Amino acid sequence: MLEVGAIDVFYGDAQALHGVSFEVHEGEIVTLLGSNGAGKTTTVRTLSGLIRPRKGTITFRGIRLDKILAHKVVSLGIAHAPEGRHLFQQMSVRENLTLGAYDASAWNDREESMERVFRLFPRLKERSKQLAGTLSGGEQQMCAIGRALMTRPNLLILDEPSLGLAPNLVEMIFQVIAEIGESGITILLIEQNAHLALQLAHRAYVLENGRVALSGPGREVAANEHVRQAYLGL
Amino acid sequence: MAAKPSLAKASGRVVISGPWLGGIGFALLAVFPLAVRDPYWMHLMILSMMWAALATTWNLLLGYAGIFSMGQQAFFGLGAYVSALLAMKAGVSPWLGLWVGGAAAAAISLIIVAPTLRLRAAPYVAIATLAFAEVCRIVAQNLVNLTRGELGLNGIPGMPAIELGGLTINFDSRSHSYYLMLILFIAIMLMTYKLVRSPFGMALKSIRESPDAAQALGVDIPRAKILVFAISAAMAAVVGAFYAHYIQVLIPSSVLGLPLMVEIIVITLIGGRGTIIGPVIGAFALTIGLEYLRFLGDYRMLLYGLLLVSLIILVPEGLVKRILPRRLTE
Amino acid sequence: MTSQLIEQGLNGLMLGSIYALMASGLSLIFGSMKMLNFAHGELYMLGGFATYFAVTFLGLPWWLAIPLAMGLMLLAGFAIERVVIEPLLRRPGWDDTPIIATLGLGVFLQNAALLLFGAQFKNLPYFIEGTGSFVGIRMAYQRILILVVSVAVMALFAQFLRRSKLGMALRAVAQDRDAARLQGIDAQGTYMWAFGIAAALATLAAAMIAPIFSVNPWMGLTLLVKAFAVCVVGGLGSIGGAILAGILLGTAESLTVVLLSSQWKDVVSFTILIIVLWVRPSGFFGTKEW
């Protein structure tokens, strides 16, 4: 479904990604692991068209993503819940969700989509009129994921959903992510919390210093010595 | 500070080229009246130097401290009116009036610097300073009994003659006025140069680049801003006072109006902000260039508008930075 | 004296509603594009001239001339944004660049208008003749019309921002540009709309007040500063705040005219602006809607 072929990405003159390649197949949950500064968010921002790679290709269902404007990426069926949530703080939960469906194809079904999101996250329904800026961390993350789901994506990219959340909330979020995966949506999960991510994912890639250091099925990567030491703290 | 070594390296080279360039320029200006006797051309050069000095005082705020003031015309006009009125109503010698005008402007600058202490964003500073300048303009316009408003304050006395070692220097002569302006010009350029190179100048630049970092390094930002504003205001006012006694007519819309500010911006932009030489080149280029385009007449402001837009889109850093090698420009 | 004061107070309301209209447009641009449109006064001026020509040369009645002028200026706003502003927004760097560009544009437009239309003040006939009397106060119907239309349009504008898809997109871009793009919102496109709508609002303001104050090439600058004053006092991004602040400024000005003289009224507005920037730059009324 998604093929990233040897992309080089620069911030000005500084190279952030060196020949990064990975794939996501339809129906999978793939996780991209790495510590701070490894290049995870850069990768994701490049996928979404906010940055352009200097070299390499990104293909989604045969279409070249790296040639498309950022706001058009959504119409291809890719949704991105960015790191740090980036909700529209001055707008209510309902408005944030509505904006999620901005893209023409999703707009007409927005009421239905919102119902689905509320079923997934009942807390959001309670707080639907509340300003997003006043929500708790966990609720904001729910809203961010919900907003991404409003686009009716085929590929859902989640950038560090566990960031700043208490452990029980993280468990809950990951449960929901699993549910979303089961409903047929392909998921690309970027995480620092390797433990839960590896439990969930079919396959994993490990980014270090802007390069893919390791890849393979979730279990294998979890069992890898280096990964166990560096990312699982074992 | 990582900046220091490269600055020192650049200083090493600049010390050789920058001041040399300035020295040559000053020397050329000094001999100019000896070569060209035409009073009209001398008048053009006087104006050029005036604009260069004025633009430099503004550049101190924007190019070095990063403060986007749109009220420089207020200080210029203030110096002009204060000195003129003191001379006309109170019989104060313009030689004193120059300094009083400068001091008055520095004092008034405290009013306008206050909002900028808290607000960093250019839009706020720009509008606040513009509003202040407009208030000054309207006040000058309305106090007709004092200033004759838009009818113009005319009959302003010129600089009185001075005795220097047996010689009487009389300022009715154009060339004598020229040399007075030249001295003012050199003084302002030198002061600015010294200021920019001093630790204070570095503090200003750090405020421009990153106020947070500057504060973390111990720069007293409010104090720095107040100081640079006062200095800039005082210098602009002295230029204004000279202008008053040279042209001998003052009209609020000319010396306190927005068109003055626009001209300053165009000049600085042509030359390049954040450089000492930029406003100078811009001033001479524009003043002399406009001479040849005199047929434009009413279209002058139109041209300015077009220039501003084109420059900022195409050559935002200024022509000087584009053309000259880097080491000459800091 | 009291009736005169009340009359002037009502006048202030009328003036204030015009300022608030201008401020809404300015605030829209500032909120979504993060830039101060120094040419806003000239958009107002051009809108006034457009209305004038629609009435005098096309012979249209005011209720056709004004929408036409607004439509024209909407397109003009699109064009200006595309040609002058676009190239600058793509660049990172100094936040004063758009100010300088719009300043240049403003100067250009003002002088172009001067050359094309001449220096003479152009007069428009009142839209509604006559005066009405309420509780002993006489008020020209024109002035009441101005107040009613301005407030109605601003209420519509507020609803537009709140409810419509484009309105939500504008607010989203103002709050978090990248996140908006991730939802599929074309940020560049919204900028064009913001500029165009602001131009249309300014046109309405100029057109409504034209019968009273006439149209001339210099009317722009003062309005710009006052519109900004309203934005600052009212709190940038708040339409309700803009209305309240507009009323405050308008009333202060009108009272100055009565108590002092008309030549000082601008000083009052400008001084209020400076003081508010000194004391409370975030404004007094309204919450951040951007």
Sum this structure up briefly.
The complex is a heterotrimer of chains A (234), B (330) and C (290). Chain A has 234 residues and is α/β, with parallel strands linked by helices.
How would you describe the overall organization of this protein?
- The complex is a heterotrimer of chains A (234), B (330) and C (290).
- Chain A has 234 residues and is α/β, with parallel strands linked by helices.
- Chain A contains eleven helices and ten strands.
- Chain A folds into two domains: 145 residues, Rossmann fold (3-Layer(aba) Sandwich); 68 residues, no CATH class.
- Chain A is globular, with a radius of gyration of 17 Å.
- By secondary structure, chain B is mainly α.
- In chain B, helix 3 runs antiparallel to helix 4, helix 7 runs antiparallel to helix 10 and helix 12 crosses helix 13.
- Chain B starts with a helix and ends in a 7-residue tail after the last helix.
- Chain C has eleven helices and two strands.
- Chain C has a two-stranded antiparallel ribbon with strand order 1-2.
- In chain C, strand 1 and strand 2 form a beta hairpin.
- Chains B and C meet through helix 4, helix 5, helix 12 and helix 14 of B and helix 3, helix 4, helix 9 and helix 11 of C.
CATH topology of chain B: ABC transporter involved in vitamin B12 uptake, BtuC
The SSE string of chain A, one letter per element, is EEEHEEHEHHHHHEHEHEEHH
**In total, how many beta strands of chain A?**
10
CATH architecture group name of chain B:
Orthogonal Bundle
Please tell me how large the radius of gyration of chain A is.
17 Å
Sheet with most strands: strand arrangement of chain B? 1-4
- Greatest interface by residues involved: B-C, 43 and 45 residues
Beta-strand portion of chain B reads: under 5%
The CATH superfamily title of the largest domain in chain A: P-loop containing nucleotide triphosphate hydrolases
Structural class of chain B: mainly alpha
Largest sheet of chain A: 6 strands, mixed
Using the CA coordinates, give the radius of gyration of chain B. 20 Å
Count of separate structural domains of chain A: 2
- By secondary-structure content and strand pairing, the structural class of chain A works out as alpha/beta
- CATH top-level class of chain B: Mainly Alpha
Strand order of the largest sheet of chain A: 6-7-8-3-9-10
As a percent range, the share of helical residues of chain B equals over 70%
Query: What is the helix/strand order of chain B?
Result: HHHHHHEEEHHHHEHHHHH
Low-confidence stretches of chain B: 1-16
